Amino acid sequence: MTTEEQAEEARRLEFGRWLFAQECEFVFGATTVDSLLPPDLPEVAFAGRSNVGKSSLVNALTGRRTLARVSQTPGRTQQINFFNLAGKLGLVDLPGYGYNQAGKTVAATWGQAVRVFLKGRPTLRRVCLLIDARHGPNRHDIDTMDALDEAAVNYQVVLTKIDKTKPPELKRTTAALAKELATHRAAHPVIMATSAQEGIGIPELRAELAALAEGSGFR
Ligand SMILES: Nc1nc2c(ncn2[C@@H]2O[C@H](COP(=O)(O)OP(=O)(O)OP(=O)(O)O)[C@@H](O)[C@H]2O)c(=O)[nH]1
Ligand SMILES: [Mg+2]
After folding, report:
1. Which of 13, 20, 136, 200 yields a CA-CA distance of 20 to 30 A from 54?
2. What are phi and psi of 41, to 5 degrees?
3. What is the pLDDT of residues 161-210, one digit of tens each?
C-alpha cells in the first residue's frame, strides 16, 4: 500500500467509526410485502441462514447490545426490521432462511416478503450475505447468491463467528469461498471475516458499509 492508500484507508475507517457511533433507531418491522417501508435512504441488508449471527452483527456494528433481538434458538428474527442510522443509511435485519418455528403459511409470507424486498428494492445498495466461518456456504446460501446475481443486487460475503475457528480452517473456508464467488457476477470479491462477540473485523465492516451511506463522499 502506498502512503496515499494508507491515508485513504484511515479516512474510511474513521468515517465508519464516526457514522456507526451516531444515533441508530429501530423504525419498523415488516412481515408482508405491502408493509415494507417506502424506499428512501440507501440501505444495507443482512441476510443468511437462521442463527448465523445477523442480529448480533447489527448490534456489534452499532455498538448496541439490544438494538436487534438475538437468540440461541434459530428463527428469532421473524420480521424485516428496518433501522435508521443517523438519517444516512438504512440497516435491514432479515429473518433467516433454512429454519422456522412458525406455521408454514406465515413462514411462506415472510419468505415472499424477503424475496420481493431483495429483488425489487431500488434503494438497496448491498446485501451482506452472512456465512458461518465454521461451516462455509450451504445449498441455501448458493441459491441466494444465484437469486441475487439474477436480480443484479450487489452482495458481499461476511463470515461470522470467526472466534470459533482456527486460522488454518478460516483460511481454507475463505479460499474455497473466493473460488465460488468468482463464478457469481453480482458478488463483491472481498470477503469480510468477523466476530460480533469479539469485535473482530467490525471496524473494517463499518468502513465498508459507511462508504455506501448518503453523502459519504466515498465510492
Ligand atoms: N461465538 C459467537 N457466537 C455468536 C456470534 N455472533 C452471534 N453468535 C451467537 O449465535 C446465535 C444466533 O445469533 P443471532 O444474531 O440471533 O442470529 P440471527 O442470524 O439473527 O438468527 P435469526 O434471527 O434466527 O435468523 C446467538 O446465540 C449468538 O450469541 C459470534 O461472533 N461469535
Ligand atoms: Mg436475527
Report:
1. 13
2. -75, 160
3. 999 999 999 999 999 999 999 999 999 999 999 999 999 999 999 999 99
Q: Is the pTM of this model over 0.70?
A: yes
Domain layout of the chain by residue ranges:
3-210
Nearest to 98, CA basis, from 111, 85, 109: 111
Gap from CA of 2 to ligand 2 centroid (Å): 40
pLDDT by residue (tens digit) across 29-61?
Answer: 998 888 888 889 999 999 999 899 999 999 999
Residue of minimum CA distance from atom 30 in ligand 1: 161
CATH hierarchy code of domain 3-210: 3.40.50.300
Long-range CB contact pairs, 8-14, < 8 A, 24+? 9/207, 12/207, 12/208, 12/210, 12/211, 12/218, 13/203, 13/204, 13/206, 13/207
Residues with Cβ within 6 A of ligand 1?
50-56, 70-72, 74-77, 95-96, 160-161, 163-164, 195-197
Instruction: Print burial letters for 3-42: b (CB count within 10 Å at least 16), e (below 16).
Output: eeeeeeeeebbebbeebbeeebeebeebeeeeebbeeebb
